[in-house]
Amino acid sequence: MSKTIDIVSLYPKDMNIYGDSGNVLTIRRRLELYGYHPVVHQYNQGDEWPEQVDLILGGGGQDTGQKKIIDDFYMRADLLRKLAADGVPMLMICGLYQLFGEYFETVDGTRLDGIGVIGAYTVGQDVRMIGNLVEHSAQFGDVIGYENHSGQTFLRDGVQPLGTVDAEGQGNNGKDHTEGARVNNVIGTYMHGSLLPKNPAISDFLIETAATRRYGSFSTTDQTSEQAAELARLDQVAANARKAAAARPR
In which family does this protein belong, per the annotation (predicted)? Predict the structure, then answer.
């Protein structure tokens, strides 16, 4: 019998923009092709929290979306902090990346406190950073995606970025050439696109971390030859998509 991996899709109703739901689909499909049994729990405000959580995926949203989920988000803050400290792998995109930091001050001066998983703060600006993006990561190689945000995020001293960007006007804040953040097994990033279909290395990091945490190791003993072939095909599709996306103008 296939081993189960429980995935939480965090606030998909209000925090799902620019294709971020594709990250959930990618994790689910790759888990299946590795021989695991993925169970996706869509968690929106007011829902019951799942008993088992192995991996959490959160997307971006407009400021209005952040304000809709914020009360429930605060109610779950201690739990999310505990899970992050315990090593649960998480990927937070854009708006939820901001709320996993210390605070987000919107362009109109409204301050939304974050939950402090990531040592970072965000300040809204009138000018958006928008366009195709390639960043360089020591662990994942070049990461390919698409950013669209007005918030400028600044990492506290000692916080590791997900990667670096070459030009000013890109990344976390357009100034220090950082993009995203890494804390324990939590990844925060502004990369939409969606991110995971084009970046299998990040998908597999999340999957292998989740499986190892739950079962003690990551194993493909239940993977069939047909599944392995399909996974190789998807990896080639991703490689082609990465090459095309990296060549596009910003």
Answer: Belongs to the CobB/CobQ family. GatD subfamily.
pTM: 0.96
Q: By C-alpha distance, which of 112, 109, 42, 110 is closest to 71? A: 112
Q: What domains sit in the chain, N to C, each tagged with a CATH number?
A: 4-247 (3.40.50.880)
Please, are residues 69 and 21 in contact by the beta-carbon 8 Å criterion?
no
Q: What is the pLDDT of residues 64-106, one digit of tens each?
A: 788 889 999 999 999 999 999 999 999 999 999 999 999 999 8
Residue-by-residue DSSP string for 108-171: TS-EEE---SSSEEEEEEEEEEEEEEEEEETTTEEEEEEEEEEEEEEEPTTPBPSEE-SSTT-T
Rounded Cα distance between 249 and 179, Å, is 19
The 10 Å Cβ neighbour count of residue 139 is: 12
Is 149 one of the catalytic residues?
A: no
Q: Which of 37, 41, 94, 136 is catalytic?
A: 94
How would you classify the pairing of strands 141-155 and 181-183?
Answer: unpaired
128 is in an annotated binding site: yes
